[in-house]
Write a structure and sequence with these properties.
14% strand; 285 residues; eight-stranded parallel beta barrel; alpha/beta; 12 helices
Length: 285
């Protein structure tokens, strides 16, 4: 019999582990976004060595104290296989230190290709296995079935794009189908069905931007709501209650530059993350 609590047992569903992490470490996801300007701000070269130094500094400073680390896969992929090797090491390093890892890859495809993406990120023995991955549903929600099934089988999670923080997203996400629902609401409803009966929190989340003027959607999916847009994109902790309403308790706010700009000093990164987590917890209540 396992001696772990549901929140810390690595075999527990992602939703249970995330609920425990947010309750004990604070509701904060720190993005690992090593774009060229940030590497320069840290005094690092825009090469694999700079990428490695940046990534390892962030992981070593924060993985034992923040709920979630979210590496943006594109910033590693642009360096080819050497960059992906840095990403693999960072994922393993972060999970070993206790952080949940959300791979921000926004994958979306059909059939065997979607199944291959699921193998890459959600299979327990995969080199890039993360606790959760972001997915795009805009080839039809049903196209995500291989990833949803793989996540359920491995105890991992997914965050599906629903109402994103970029203004261009509204063209698709606010469009209405034949039944009168917006595309975003149809996605949210499908996620709610996936999470039905899950306790204390479902493992199938949605991405809903904190920058929205209003959600204008039912966010009660019994799952986590990843909220990008805080900081550089203009949203603040105070916007969370306005956008998410009664679902605010399940929100996982994502902050990148607001924390990362305090590097490369590890203690400054830790202090920035602690302040962000405290402010977000207070705002969410």
């Amino acid at each position: 019999m396992s001696t772990h609590s549901p929140g810390t047992d690595p075999r527990a569903p992602f939703g249970a582990r995330l609920r425990h992490a947010m309750d004990t470490r604070g509701p904060l996801c720190v993005g690992i976004d090593p774009h060229p300007s940030l590497l320069a701000d840290w005094g690092l070269d825009d090469d694999v060595e700079g990428l490695r130094n940046f990534t390892h500094t962030v992981v070593d400073a924060l993985a034992d104290r923040v709920a979630v680390l979210k590496p943006q896969s594109a910033f590693f992929e642009r360096f080819g296989s050497a960059g992906v090797a840095v990403l693999e090491a960072a994922v393993a390093r972060a999970r070993e230190a206790g952080a949940l890892v959300l791979m921000d890859a926004k994958r979306g495809d059909i059939g065997s290709t979607m199944a291959a993406y699921a193998d890459a990120y959600l299979r327990a023995d995969a080199p890039l296995h993360a606790d959760a991955v972001t997915l795009s549903p805009f080839l039809g929600f049903g196209s995500l079935r291989p990833a949803l099934d793989a996540a359920r089988e491995s105890g991992s999670g997914v965050f599906v794009l629903a109402l994103t923080s970029n203004p261009e997203g509204a063209d698709v996400q606010r469009a209405r189908g034949a039944d009168g629902r917006t595309v975003a609401q149809a996605v949210l409803d499908r996620l709610a069905a996936e999470n039905e009966g899950a306790e204390p929190l479902g493992s199938f989340g949605a991405v809903v931007g904190a920058t929205l003027a209003e959600a204008d959607a039912d966010l009660g999916i019994n799952g986590p709501l990843l909220a990008p847009g805080i900081g550089a994109q203009g949203a603040t902790a105070g916007d969370l209650r306005r956008v998410f309403g009664s679902a605010a308790g399940n929100v996982l706010p994502s902050v990148s530059r607001g924390v990362l700009r305090h590097g490369p000093d590890p203690e400054a990164l830790r202090k920035a993350a602690r302040i962000e987590a405290e402010q977000l917890a207070e705002a969410i209540g």
